């Protein structure tokens, strides 16, 4: 796997490059701003992009905008965004095209090396990974919206789906049968009004609904 990193914090970018190298992941380029990220993706054609939400010069949303730009030119390019704080709108923007292969993690997750690398590989494989803190905040504040129709177990399943777990992983995490997982996931799709024609994208759409309501 080859990645491009967009991060202006030299210590973090150097740490990421060293960490990924120990896991057999090649870092093709490290850049510090949005335009440089777009150029690096064009030059190196990476398998995945890791980008800070906030990059120079204004340190607002330059990283997200650059990530969205490269996704437009290379649809489905896996992108893992790192943020200092929970900023729900950025997570939703990345998911909006419905193609998956996106992750949104707080920077302190990098220190949990095993889980971070697992999340990175999940995104590279086309999955969706949301930071547990984002999920916790949404679950704590969600009232008066489409999520209210879900049972406690279905909300638990949806929160794990937002973390990128597959049905098999859900079964293992919750210690329930595959059939029970399939039933819960089907009920979630039905209650959130997600049509069968959306196929595999329904998981992404369910997470979008999750992000839309708080």
CATH topology of the largest domain: Rossmann fold
Strand order of the main beta sheet, please? 2-1-3-4-5-6
Overall number of strands: 6
Number of domains: 2
The CATH architecture of the largest domain = 3-Layer(aba) Sandwich
Brief synopsis:
The chain has 214 residues and is α/β, with parallel strands linked by helices.
Question: Would you give an account of this structure?
Answer:
This protein starts with a strand and ends with a helix. The chain is 51% helix and 14% strand. Helix 7 crosses helix 10 (202-212) and helix 8 (167-174) crosses helix 9. It has 214 residues and is an alpha/beta fold. The chain has ten helices and six strands, in the order βαβαβαβαβαβααααα. The relative contact order is 0.11. It folds into two domains: 2-130, 3-Layer(aba) Sandwich (Rossmann fold); 135-212, Arc Repressor Mutant, subunit A (Orthogonal Bundle), CATH 1.10.10.
